Amino acid sequence: MAYNLLKGKKGIIFGALDSNSIAWKVAERAHEEGAEFVLTNAPVALRMGTINQLAEKTGSQVIPADATSMKDLEHLVDESMKILGGKIDFVLHSIGMSVNVRRGYHYTDQDYKFTKIGWDVSALSFHRVMNVLYNKKAMNEWGSIVALSYIAAQRVFPDYNDMADNKAYLESVARSFGYFFGRDFKVRVNTISQSPTPTTAGSGVKGFDGFLNYAEKMSPLGNATALECADYTISLFSDLTKKVTLQNLFHDGGFSKMGISDEVMQMFNESAEKEHKKHKKDKKK
Hints:
This protein has 285 residues and is of the alpha/beta class. 48% of the residues lie in helices and 14% in strands. The protein has one domain: Rossmann fold (3-Layer(aba) Sandwich), CATH 3.40.50.720. It has helices at 22-32, 43-48, 51-58, 70-84, 99-103, 112-135, 163-185, 208-218, 226-237, 262-284, and strands spanning 10-14, 36-40, 61-62, 88-93, 139-149, 188-194, 248-251. It has a seven-stranded parallel β-sheet with strand order 3-2-1-4-5-6-7, with helices on both faces. Helix 7 links the parallel strand 5 and strand 6. 41% of the residues are buried. The mean pLDDT is 94.
């Protein structure tokens, strides 16, 4: 159901790769809510994905941009304002990549060249994007900038590897740059800490399926889907959240506030019972 929440608003959406992407779902929902926007991704990602189908579906244009290149980002913002006919109302930063994860390097034995690449792509790029928007005065008052994060920025999830550090940096950038954007231009900056979501990027993390099931059993409302995350993002782009800024907002079915759930405790109890019976049986032998 559409509510015209973004009627007349203009934006830039980073990171739509395929129909599993959260950014893809955000683009579809933004279009349904009346927004116009430009789609962008790195040139190599554009070759891998199907973003042109999304552009056709939403009546959008695609501008290739490497989010680690200031030159590319400046061109992106300039061209977006030309295409959209004015300043920007909303921006989604949905970019994340770890070469260490892809190559199978353990967190305790990283290749630091890969670490720097992942940090630049996943975290520093957010600062770069806001730098360009801020210095070009490209955002309308009461605009909204959102980046996607994950709870591993605050808690230990061993297989999330160096992406946990990247997300922690991302959230810090949102707070620090968000202060200046709010003070000077009345622009909101927030991050969304989403449930584990079976996207192309998320599925590359070791043990992802097991953790997806664990999070589902821990969360009283269950895991939030990509589409549900898109709905939440739309609310942050809308005028209904004009005073929400500098926040890391958990969108995870309650997972972030849980210590243990009955369902997970039952699994542990069943496992302990099996171990106890096995021990008694071995002792009789």
